[in-house]
């Protein structure tokens, strides 16, 4: 069976009736009337207004122009010689000729509500105060003068100001701040506070073919150090053994005292305290403290105030005496500083040669870091190991260790402990029961 569909179904137009020759009677009145022609006419008029105005209302001069551009077929014949416009310009030129709505406020009517407006201060004249100020400025007397100061920073070293792109939504990268200690000099670990040389100069006793006096003195020095270290070790062991023995003895005495305390009353010759004295009913012999009276408190308060006043007077007297001797004290301090500077200069001259040589270092008590400075390797060849030939020579020491210890001694690097293996995270291995997930 064919589907019945109206002529206007699916077209998007308003429903309408058939054309009626006359609509004078009431029966011919309908709710929906065919207004297609009226809408088309209005749409056409709106299009003409957008293009520049209604054609019927325009004059002939606006509709017709004199052709002075030439033949329009020339660009088609010679397309290479004609410049082709941009598509963007073509889209922009097709815009409406109707001017945009102005955003400025329209002038209001001349009518008012009868309320008299408040008087405003005139702005087309200068007050006496401003006139006096302008005269002073003209004479060269400025109230706020700009003081010229020397620059405290390098203008060319300042970072460039980069404007942020509004389309960039990522946060700015914050650079790490340089700690203040980076600008300070490294702190030496020597007790005297002097900077140790990077490569100390060895003495003649460190040679593989030394002279006998230098070798003998160095051997005796190292032997003395070894004996002292061994003596300290033995003393520490003896002190530890004595400590353990004393602890064991005190534990035995405590056990014996506990056993005596646990003895019965008939095994111990003791007497009931207070049975024969008969003084329990009497008052204690110690004098009980009494509450101070107001007079005593006032007397103590006056004595404290007098002591404070006397101390204040003594301090002021000493201060006045020092004020009278300010010049003498300043001269004495300056003279002491000069003497101290001369002594330091002499000591530096004397120690300049001694510091560059390898010797015993006295380290400061508070060291850098958590761990102490590693001990130096004993670079000493025993008398029976001395060789006369370089072929049989056995080298001593390690340059890498020496350089590392020198960096630690000069405070360039902090002492660290060697960690051979990194601690791994604990993991637990389990077997997944996948057969439980199997469903028929």
From TrEMBL:
A biological process from GO: ribosomal large subunit assembly
Highest taxon, organism lineage: Eukaryota
Compositionally biased residues, Basic and acidic residues: 215-243
Region (Disordered): 1-31, 97-121, 194-323
Localisation: Nucleus, Nucleolus; Nucleus, Nucleoplasm
Coiled-coil residue spans: none
Ranges of Basic residues composition bias in the record: 288-302
Biased composition (Low complexity): 244-254
Record-stated family: Belongs to the NOP53 family.
Function: May play a role in ribosome biogenesis.
Protein name, entry field: Ribosome biogenesis protein NOP53
Classification lineage: Eukaryota, Fungi, Dikarya, Ascomycota, Pezizomycotina
